[in-house]
Design brief:
The protein has 531 residues and is mostly beta strands. It is built from one helix and 50 strands. Strand 3 and strand 4 form a beta hairpin. The longest helix has 20 residues.
Length: 531
């Protein structure tokens, strides 16, 4: 009996030993799988492999890039971290162990950094420049771009593209990139050209500063509707919200686009501000109130509310101690610059925006019947009528230059003697809504999809550019140093040669451009359209 008991205990012990030594299943939750492979440290060649059910014992796992063994730094069930013992490499990932064999088919490559192109290659200080190429460090903080040895601010980076801003102090010369462990130099030299900046708003909801030389954006600031046409004074831009609902007047730093202040009115603003001796003048659309706002603080100095029905205020004109403005489809007013007190008003004109010069105020309107367009010349001192001239289908605002008033209708363009109102010439050339600009004895204006140049002497057409049938909004154009700047409803801001009408560059925004551009050159000269 004792013999059988000993035998039984021995068998039981053997069974228990076998259970204890039996191997445990390695994949408790499923089959091993790689879900992603990333080069997570460009310079050190660190690769991170993520997935599920990896062998977490480092000595049990080996990783290779094709036939090149990789150094395993760490391993868990969901992540393997390895280092490539080479500065340049290309291949696919293989993961093997006693328990698994995995393959990642995508090719992982690191080669020498190369700059293929720099765009734009001619630009001014502060312009955003795009470097395109191969094997950049996608970590922007690890990249440095140099413009002729001057380091620039890197805005964004990927393996194939770096965006940087031309730094202050940059000069014409090489463009290079340094990415900690690698560097490259562009084959073509960068040319610095600080000719100035174009400021304009777009209906994509941004206000833009654009480099004059290249058409590249320097900065953009979100504003409702992109903002109205701007005015510039002492390094500050002034504009209102441009979506028809925003009742804020804004001041932006012209160098950075930073908002300095905003002034909120009772209703949305209308038109382009006038800035004179530290005061911003502009009217609102719904409550028909005209405001004077301190240009430095954004505090209101005075306001004047029209008692006449109207459709908002047009663009004001400052002249000889007064500000002249029209409450559209109603009256034209003369207000004291310092106090806002009413000097005079002239009703029943259905006027547009006035232009005050040489003792007279010129304004487009209609006769008492509202049927016939009339160009009015009012005495600036008291608002009395100096002369009138009827114009069928008059619709443009006038511009005055060298004793001549230029204005357009739907079908014709006219020149009148500014003192007498006598017609000098007319040509069959429609000027829809926009005020013409006069530079060097040449007339420029934007109409329905075209930009036109006429001779001031007789109205003869110099050139005509349809810009591939891009239709312009009611915003006008500005001319600076032989170049025309104008926006279209296709989202383009165009620079055209004023002598030929040929497009020099186009800066694309993401919606229509109704704002009339303002240009400030490198010497600080300001070019703003008479509107």
């Amino acid at each position: 009996m004792k013999k059988y008991l000993i035998t039984a205990l021995a068998i039981l012990s053997l069974v228990q030993c076998k259970k204890k030594d039996a191997p445990k299943p390695w994949y408790p939750s499923g089959t091993p799988n790689i879900s992603d492979v990333q080069l997570t440290d460009f310079c050190d060649g660190i690769i991170t492999i993520t997935g599920v059910n990896f062998d977490s014992v480092p000595k049990g796992v080996s990783v290779a890039l094709d036939s090149l063994p990789l150094q395993l730094l760490s391993a868990t069930q969901t992540k393997l971290v390895v280092r490539v013992p080479a500065t340049v490499f290309s291949g696919s990932i293989y993961v093997t162990s006693e328990h698994l064999s995995l393959y990642w088919p995508a090719t992982l490559t690191k080669g020498p950094t190369v700059i293929d192109s720099v765009s734009p290659i001619v630009a001014g200080t502060g312009t955003m420049i795009t470097l395109s190429g191969h094997f950049f460090n996608p970590n922007a903080a690890a990249d440095t771009v140099y413009f002729n040895h001057i380091p620039a601010t890197v805005l964004s980076a990927s393996a194939t593209q770096i965006v940087a801003r031309v730094p202050a102090g940059a000069t014409t010369g090489q463009v290079a990139v340094q990415s900690n462990c690698q560097s490259a130099v562009a084959k073509t030299n960068f040319t610095l050209s600080n000719k100035g900046t174009v400021y304009v708003g777009s209906h994509d909801g941004n206000f833009y500063a654009i480099d004059v030389a290249s058409g590249g954006p320097k900065w953009l600031t979100p504003l409702p509707g992109g903002g109205t046409s701007p005015a510039f004074a002492n390094g500050v831009l002034y504009m209102a919200g441009g979506d028809g609902n925003d009742s804020n007047l804004y001041a932006l730093d012209a160098n950075t686009g930073a908002k300095l202040w905003s002034f909120k009115a009772a209703s949305p603003w209308q038109g382009t501000p006038a800035v004179y001796q530290g005061v911003v003048y502009l009217g609102t659309s719904v409550d028909n109130t005209f405001h004077a706002v301190d240009a430095t603080t954004g505090q209101q100095k005075w306001s004047y509310k029209s008692s006449q029905p109207g459709d908002g205020w047009g663009v004001p004109s400052v002249y000889n101690g007064s500000v002249y403005a029209s409450c559209l489809v109603s009256s034209t007013y003369s207000l004291d610059l310092s106090t806002g007190a009413l000097n005079w008003s002239r009703g029943s004109l259905s006027p547009g925006s006035p232009v005050a010069v040489g003792g007279l105020v010129y304004v487009s309107g209609y006769d008492s019947s509202g049927e016939m367009g009339v160009l009015y010349a009012l005495n600036a001192a008291d608002g009395s009528i100096a002369w009138t001239n009827p114009i069928y289908q008059l619709n443009g605002s006038p511009t005055v230059s060298n004793g001549v008033v230029y204005v357009g209708s739907y079908e014709h363009f006219y020149a009148f003697n500014a003192a007498t109102g006598a017609q000098i010439w007319s040509v069959p050339q429609g000027s829809l809504y926009t005020a013409p600009q006069i530079v060097d004895n040449t007339i420029y204006f934007a109409s329905t999809g075209v930009v036109v140049s006429l001779n001031t002497a007789n109205g003869q057409q110099n050139w005509y550019n349809s810009l591939v049938q891009n239709t312009f909004y009611q915003g006008g154009l500005v001319v600076a140093h032989g170049v025309i700047y104008v926006g279209g409803n296709d989202g383009g801001v165009y620079a055209l040669d004023a002598g030929t009408g040929k497009v020099i560059w186009t800066c694309w925004t993401h919606a229509g451009v109704e704002s009339t551009p303002c240009v400030v050159d490198s010497a600080g000269a300001v070019f703003q359209a008479q509107q």
